[in-house]
Amino acid sequence: MENKTKTVNILKEKRKVPAHVAEGRKKYVQIRKAILEALKEDGKTIPQIAMATQLPSSEITYYLMTLQKFGEVTVEGIDDMDEYYIYQLKK
């Protein structure tokens, strides 16, 4: 019996990921890791996460919504001044 190569392996060899896509994925992983690290201890608002990660609030909002969509982060409540939601890691 001859050794066959899986179709997925053939496609991986033929189709390379463009550099800008690989860089975007790398950036996503870094920001995701930073946000999850900031939320390890307790729930935080978007400005608190932005301060902890040194990233703009607009980026934090985008990535938090993505993390919430995929079930990694949940809304714990709202802050005392009713301005921001408090996010935490899903348990």
Could you describe the 3D structure shown?
- The chain is an alpha+beta fold and 91 residues long.
- It has a single domain (16-89), classed as Arc Repressor Mutant, subunit A.
- It is built from four helices and two strands.
- The mean pLDDT is 90.
CATH class: Mainly Alpha
Major beta sheet, specifics?
Answer: 2 strands, antiparallel
* CATH-assigned fold name: Arc Repressor Mutant, subunit A
Whole-number total of structural domains: 1
Structural class based on helices, strands and sheet pairing: alpha+beta
**C-alpha termini separation:** 49 Å
Q: What is the averaged pLDDT score?
A: 90
Strand content is: 5-15%
Query: How is the largest sheet built, in terms of strand order?
Result: 1-2
Shape label: elongated
One letter per element, helices H and strands E, the order comes to: HHHHEE
Question: Helix and strand layout, with pairings?
Answer:
Elements: H1 7-14, H2 19-38, H3 46-53, H4 57-69, E1 73-78, E2 85-89
Please outline what is shown here.
This protein has 91 residues and is of the alpha+beta class. 54% of the residues lie in helices and 12% in strands. It has one domain: Winged helix-like DNA-binding domain superfamily/Winged helix DNA-binding domain (Arc Repressor Mutant, subunit A), CATH 1.10.10.
Key features of this structure:
two-stranded antiparallel sheet; 2 strands; alpha+beta; Arc Repressor Mutant, subunit A; 91 residues
